[in-house]
Amino acid sequence: MTRIAFIGLGNMGLPMAQNLVRAGHEVQGFDVGAAPREAAEAAGIAVAEDLAGAVAGAEVVVTMLPAGPQVRAVYAGLGGVLGAADAGTLLIDCSTIDVETARDVAAQAEAAGLAMLDAPVSGGVGGAAAGTLTFMVGGSAAAFASAEPVLAAMGKSIVHAGDAGTGQAAKICNNMMLGIQMISVCEAMALAEKLGLDQEKLFEISAKASGQCWSLTTYCPVPGPVPSSPANRGYQPGFTAAMMLKDLRLAQSAAQAVGAATPLGAEAAQLYALFASKENEGLDFSAIIKMMQGRSG
Length: 297
Ligand code: NAD
Hints:
Helices cover 49% and strands 13% of the residues. The protein is an alpha/beta fold. The strands form two sheets. It has a six-stranded parallel sheet with strand order 3-2-1-4-5-6, with helices on both faces. A three-stranded mixed sheet has the order 7-8-9. It is elongated. The N and C termini lie far apart (50 Å). Bound molecules: nicotinamide-adenine-dinucleotide.
């Protein structure tokens, strides 16, 4: 049993914290929002009055926060984790944030004598609830070895990507591939429709041909061929268009920072920015097919 502080009890954080409790760990949660705090208490998570209260006495701190500014505030802000944690506490940030902030906060943790990992996830809310998330982890090998048993309670695939920041790098590179692939499948499906080719037939052919990819065979953006894909339930997420846009923007700012050419990543970010208006931002990211079909709001 490990004493774990869990900060950020939102859509992802709450089910992840629940899995830590189920695995026999002692969890103290905290969230700035009253609604997530109440939902966590109703789900059987002990919730502290404040951040310092959750972190006091913890052997491990896990954070699952919206973006870089919140991660910076929670760790390095006044009364933050870096000041409140006991010596030897292991810090694991599972949020999806920019590489620069991840490296900067990890360096501040190191200066305070604390080991920190960036450990973003893929698998979404469903994977968080089922305990089947994939963790991409950046940080020292020693910290990774200590974190593995804790992460194993929340995920099924845990990969050490390299030094600090490489977990975030893996996450944005992967999601840039995913965003580009999804757009390519949507364009091909929309073109097939206009050419009088049945979309189910294109699926049948491409699923076994060189166009095969995850966006086609696991997450098909048209209803029918893959019954579990969001296209079969009115594009309810899943993984929202707004989250895809967030990750594509993170990839673009990282590419600019290191001078990498990512023209298709840039185009994908533009297309998701056009699509993810107020009306569409909460839809699954595969709903971008509506734009290619000229049917988006
Ligand atoms: P969410 O908005 O539901 O949860 C974030 C929680 O953090 C909220 O409850 C919020 O009140 C809390 N919070 C914000 N600032 C805080 C602070 N200073 N102190 C304490 N709590 C604070 O978001 P989510 O969907 O759970 O996503 C969390 C992270 O996981 C994001 O970085 C997201 O990109 C990433 N992610 C989400 C998914 C998904 O499908 N939802 C999938 C993969 C990765």
